[in-house]
Write a structure and sequence with these properties.
Layout (H helix, E strand, L loop, with lengths): L1 H20 L7 H12 L5 E5 L16 H6 L5 E5 L16 H13 L3 E5 L28 H5 L6 H15 L12 E4 L18 H18 L4 E5 L9 H6 L9 E7 L4 H21 L3 E8 L15 H10 L6 E4 L2 E3 L7 E3 L9 H9 L14
Helix pairs in contact: 6-7, 9-10
Bound molecules: beta-D-mannopyranose.
Length: about 375
């Protein structure tokens, strides 16, 4: 008996020793992207832009065109895309961009060495109807039913329906690959701005347990279907008073988050934005560093480059207000939202990113000349 135990032990030691000598498994696409982004922090802050290759202030859907490229001669380092509508099986997203075009541009940007982030504004599972309704009815911003999250969690009346929505989302995400079959690494950022109360998953509408349950339910589905290429981004909104206690209440945990972000728009007075940034950017950057996570400004901008309180244009906003407020905390990237101009068909003008068509053009060019941010060619050496 003793001999058997001894032999078994020796065999076990042998196996362990053998395993030790084996090479570590190859890093996943997600791990490689995380590594790459941490290394790039030493190089600078990447410029990211939502919907960059689809439209700008004076054009829409012109092959190869981009406001960033028109202004600075190159594409953003990071491009952001939104999958709102994929849960319904729609052909176009909530901003009327065809999902086939989104896929093409995601693959193209990956092939040129760029980084991709994806957000999701899912419709409201309680109030959505097949008939067209006036905005915001049925949308992510529809707050008429405050019981959504509880109803889509396991056991809830809309759980199965939401599960189907997740199935459609992940089926689409599975198609984001190169012709050679390589999965594109994606920074996926669901449930953004959860600390505000303007989306159905917002602060007022969930307990911490419900919110974390929802995060986990979405993530578990995505992990099961896409186990290797997703980097998970968790992004609250700028509110100027984050504390550990408040932040931890709805934080899903270190094993569930890879990147911490903050959505930081200037909607109010400039001084208030600057003070809020000083506090929140420092808070999130420190939290990220202490928890070994990446950190980014996951959305930002001054709408139409105009102070929303005084209506004054602010041509030097990027160099004077924004860049100084993020410089020291070294986020991986900052992502102004889309440059949308619907005025030709009676819709709004709403742009946030760099463009050759406004008064910030020279300011932004000067910032790029002094290497204040990185575009795609600045990050093209792939690991
Ligand atoms: C918001 C607005 C909306 C848009 C949504 C998703 O900030 O720009 O018009 O539908 O983002 O892109």
């Amino acid at each position: 008996m003793k001999k058997t135990i001894l032999l078994a032990t020796l065999a076990l030691v042998g196996i362990t020793a053998c395993t030790d000598k084996q090479e570590a498994p190859a890093p996943t696409e997600a791990q490689q992207l995380i590594e790459r982004m941490s290394a790039l922090r030493d190089k600078g802050i990447m410029y990211a832009h939502q919907d960059d290759p689809f439209y700008g202030i004076t054009w829409a859907y012109e092959e190869g065109r981009s406001d960033t490229k028109d202004l600075l001669g190159d594409y953003p380092a990071v491009m952001g895309f939104d999958l709102g509508g994929i849960e319904m099986g729609d052909l176009k997203n909530l901003d009327s961009v065809p999902f086939t075009t989104i896929r093409e541009e995601i693959v193209k940007h990956h092939q040129r060495g760029g980084i991709i982030t994806v957000s999701w504004h899912p419709r409201n599972p309680m109030t959505d109807t097949p008939e067209p309704q006036a905005f915001p009815a049925g949308s992510a911003w529809d707050l008429t039913d405050t019981t959504v999250v509880r109803n889509i969690l396991p056991g809830g009346e809309k759980h199965e329906m939401f599960d189907l929505w997740l199935e459609r989302l992940t089926d689409y995400m599975l198609t984001l690959k190169t012709p050679e079959g390589e999965m594109v690494p994606i920074i996926f950022r669901p449930l953004h701005e959860y600390d505000g109360s303007w989306f159905w998953w917002g602060d007022k509408f969930t307990t911490p347990e419900q919110f974390v349950g929802l995060w986990n339910m979405i993530q578990d589905k995505v992990r099961a279907k896409l186990p290797t290429n997703i980097v998970y981004a968790f992004s609250p909104n700028l509110n100027g008073f984050w504390t550990d206690e408040k932040f931890l209440a709805k934080y899903p945990g270190d094993d569930r988050v890879d990147l911490l972000g903050i959505d930081a728009y200037q909607w109010g007075p400039e001084e208030q934005f600057v003070i809020g940034m000083q506090r929140d950017v420092a808070f999130i950057a420190t939290f990220a560093a202490e928890h070994g996570k990446l950190f980014a400004i996951t959305e930002c901008g001054l709408k139409n480059l105009t102070n929303q309180v005084t209506q004054e244009p602010t041509p030097d906003w990027w160099s004077r207000v924004f860049m100084p407020s993020v410089k020291d905390s070294k986020p991986c990237y900052f992502l102004p939202w889309r440059n949308y101009n619907g005025t030709a068909h009676g819709d709004k003008l709403e742009y946030f990113g760099f463009t050759p068509d406004d008064a910030s053009a020279n300011d932004v060019k000067a910032l790029y000349a002094e290497k204040a941010f990185l575009l795609v060619k600045d990050i093209q050496t792939r690991p």
